Amino acid sequence: MVAAGLLTGCGGGGSSSGGGGGGGNTNTIVFVSNRDGNNEIYRMRSDGSSQTRLTNNIGTDSSPNINRAGTEVVFVSSRDGNNEIYKLTLATNQLQRFTNDEVDVSDSAPVFSPNGSKIAWISERDGANNIWIMDSTGANQTKITTAGAGDVTWNPSGTEVAYFRNRNIVIRNVSSGAERTITLVNGSNDAVFRLRWSPDGNKFLYTRLIPTVNAPASLVSYDINSGQETVVAPENTSQTYYGSWSPDSNSVVWSAFKANSGDEIGTNQVYTGPVPRGNSTPTRLTTQGANTETSWAQ
User: Fold this and answer.
1) Other beta carbons less than 10 A from residue 213's beta carbon
2) Rounded to whole angstroms, how far apart are CA atoms 194 and 221?
3) Cβ atoms 242, 255 nearer than 8 A
4) Global pTM value
5) How many CB atoms lie within 10 A of CB 169?
6) Which pLDDT belongs to residue 167?
7) How many whole angstroms from its chain centre is CA 34?
């Protein structure tokens, strides 16, 4: 099911205001902010400038993912009653709804394939969370897993997807269905989520949460070749979530309650920094409202 329309009323917020018009830009980060009263999708340049609201409705918009060309954003919205997948074309403000499931059936975590021709996402339409893939037009929606899946990300060639199962990473060939598993060094109760494959194909990025009182969430990089896991956000962060790779795989963007010793604790803000981080200090990109769920055009 594909329903299309023009998005209107996308005024103000951040450094600039207006709708999603304009051409593509791989120097673009999209994110979620509540600075104007509820969760909407925004975009900005990778230095934090030109912050612009892209959506404006009374529902909750979340989980934005921008294509490599920086021309389209796919996201989740509850504007029509439950969580469905939508695509926004930035140059024309055309908004398309791609899923139409029953009430209480959730669609989540949409991600473009590297060439932008496919979208993978998680849906529970058949009773459990599994990975589905569709064309970037919304056509040919197909389930590719049956044993459950948490989150989904593409490899750089678009031939494989990776996802979490039982706190480990499973890599699946989209055509053949063949799978292999990477065993992570996790505690038995650790939660892992928001998996992202680096554009150079060598690393994964994910959030690890140790479920103890006041335990911080950590942003972790996993080197596929060596098997080494490295914390890439500062350990003094209160909570670190929703990381995304830069186009060159040398930096990450993420949201945190506090990433530097001088920052206040209270609301999520967006930060960026190099990988490996060395002695560098993260750069804070947002200041207004609570900001999270980042995606960097790759």
Assistant:
1) 4
2) 12
3) yes
4) 0.89
5) 22
6) 85
7) 17
